[in-house]
């Protein structure tokens, strides 16, 4: 045991002595190398440059060299200042392949002693590297001579420049290819790597930190990764057999998000393939990493929650298409997706993007596509299902897809971004093929084909307070056109059967709703017109909403209120308070704030009534203009039906007989359908036959004043023609001859519903009964013979009418 301990001590002493000798030798060698470099700067610099210039079609130069001995102890290092690397055609293109303020070179001490410079490490600081290819395909990288494969096999391994370590700090790297319109521009903060040189090529582990100024595969379409930072560690290897650099998939931070990136770069063909995988990243952040020609189209869509993405970028090096081949897949689960027409909630799909949709076709925007596979979502609470939804041709992106859905209409409540509708019952079943121009959505609107079936609907249209029950209809879309078939609605006691067609609906819906023309056909067994009075009133104010819902509700409300409508209406029986009409045939137009009666004919009060005109909606009330023709209607029933036209002087109780007339009048009508007093203006030309004035107060008062022995409470008139001009509360009676059973008289003047009555009457005292046996011409001559009373009806102090002599009569 003691001998063993003594033996160990002896070997330890020997080892320490050997180690001491080695340390001393290393120090002496290092000092010798340092002394040699200090005494032979020019020779060492020349030797280094000679080593670096081997196999170059150009020259690397340096203005000076300084030893930096302690930087790589026990190795020896020097700093080359003012370094320039230029190819042989520099005078033509003027782009330095390398321009550096200083390059630190670490040398192998033993190789230095024997006179052969072996560079172990290169550190490039404050430099710019500009790899330039002109429009003819010439590159300044031709400075590096390439050997044939036979030369490579025969060349000794030691003859190649093998740098064990690289260290780039504050280096600008630009790869500018004018021929293929590529520009890669990096501000490298740091690149550090260790290199090994097996027989197969080389391997390296490289730590990278850089900013991307440009990563443009096609400068005409913009840069990928614009202004993003890259940070991570790459495991790279070079294969001599493949003449390719291979980057194993590793985590690389782009911006603040980790990406798993791998690549293969084939040097002889300038080809590459890049694989990318990233999880839990926002769609917008990914889109902004792509070139503007792609991102601008992708940003037409939005995805709120993070997604997973897998992608590949491949360039075969041929330069045939300019763009690399891009394929991207995304996975979306329980997300919110924004599209130009609104939002899809609870959205699930598998998506893909490629810029070569047709295999073997060109690579680029024209052959690109975005696809959504197995898409399920809710659109305003309506569940949607789309097997495949495609956006083709990013140069002018067209979206297409078949949309199917079945849902209760109540799902739409509080989801359209408007309070215009309240759906209480009913179901919807839709199957629509949609095609939309995404890029020009504001100008070229979606094309839709298919059908929507609505059954057993109970709908309240709030702005007009219209409640429709037992409603059903089939809505058919034929590309841009829309039609409604088998429509049935019930509004109160009114029933309507509806069909309609709207040309160019899909385009005008968004761009010009005021140009939409609805051709509507309606028929009804019975119609209670009072139930449609909400159309006369102003729209009820509705609660505002935000975001996409507000946009959709605004568009829908604009269409409903601004679109034009032509209505052909046939009704067996139409009822409005006291008004009863049969066989109603109407041609009506709704435009903006107006209802236009193009032509209406109806059987009423034993005769026929036809009219045209309009009602214009206003804030306080509505104004109307009516041109009507009345043919042989019962005047008593006619006045009763129209509520005595807003006055109570001559009412249906005062009238008998039959009326024919032409009336051109205007006035005001309330939102509840009542004619406003003193609002009517116009002209009425009338004829009455077999008529009678019954208990007409002004005439009765005349009788009391002058004809006490005659019955003026029931004055029969066989025929009467007259013209009335209505001005508000005053009726101007044009000179008119009245021949009746009780007396004959001439009348003219102003009859006022308020103050201002001034009616002149010329009344002969002779009794018409005595002229019954005279001929018509004899009656005209005898009519005003004898005593004629000239009287005047004017206002009295109590607001009534008094009769007095007309002293102003000529």
From TrEMBL:
Domain of life the protein comes from: Bacteria
PANTHER family registered for this protein in UniProt: DUF748 DOMAIN-CONTAINING PROTEIN
Annotated protein name in UniProt: AsmA family protein
AsmA domain boundaries: 8-244
Phylogenetic placement of the source organism: Bacteria, Pseudomonadati, Bacteroidota, Sphingobacteriia, Sphingobacteriales
InterPro entries: AsmA (IPR007844), AsmA-related (IPR052894)
Organism: Pedobacter alluvionis
